[in-house]
Amino acid sequence: MTWDTYHHVISLKTTPRVGTPDKMADSQSHRTVGRTRKLAPSQRRHSCEICGKSVKNRASLVIHLRTHTKERPFACDVCGKAFMEKGHVRRHKRIHTNYKPYVCDICGKSFNQNTNLRQHLLTHTDDKQFRCDYCGQSFTFKANLQVHLRTHTNEKPYTCDVCGKSVAVKSDLDKHLRTHTKERPYRCDICGRCFGRLFTLTQHERRIHAEM
Q1: How many Cα atoms sit within 13 Å of 142 on the Cβ side?
Q2: Which of 188, 155, 189, 158 has its CA nearest to residue 175?
Q3: Which intervals hold domain C2H2-type (predicted)?
């Protein structure tokens, strides 16, 4: 074999031909241009027709829609308070039993929800990055700062539908509403007496059952 013949054979082996993998790959890439790739069920998103919010699955969309319809299909069998999700009822029931399984390792304070414990743990740190521009007081959480600011602005965004009274904090509105509904969701495990506020139950247990 001459030197020119050798180079000719090598060029034939290294030059892509019609039907070779290189050509087929190029051809396949051209065919897929402009097509929408089909997503796996786990990758599909579901959008709310009311506000456009996108959620990961249909079950999450059903729950989200209740924020618009105000539907609350899950009710507490003790006090009748209704919720959008079944899990919320389970957590709510702990206020009736005073069950607080989440305990702070630093001070021993207990909570009925893990999220409340995690927030509480931050109070043991010196990280208070949210500062009031009016008085200079600092807070660990932005939500606490927002509530505090209302003491300066006198803003009261929560209004009672029964009597029209306005308050600055949502939890205060919940407590106020019980003066109309006579709901007493906090029950003493020792004597069975019920109270409208958790603070009142705690005071009752300390005064009446302290020696037990």
Answers
A1: 0
A2: 158
A3: 46-73, 74-101, 102-129, 130-157, 158-185, 186-212
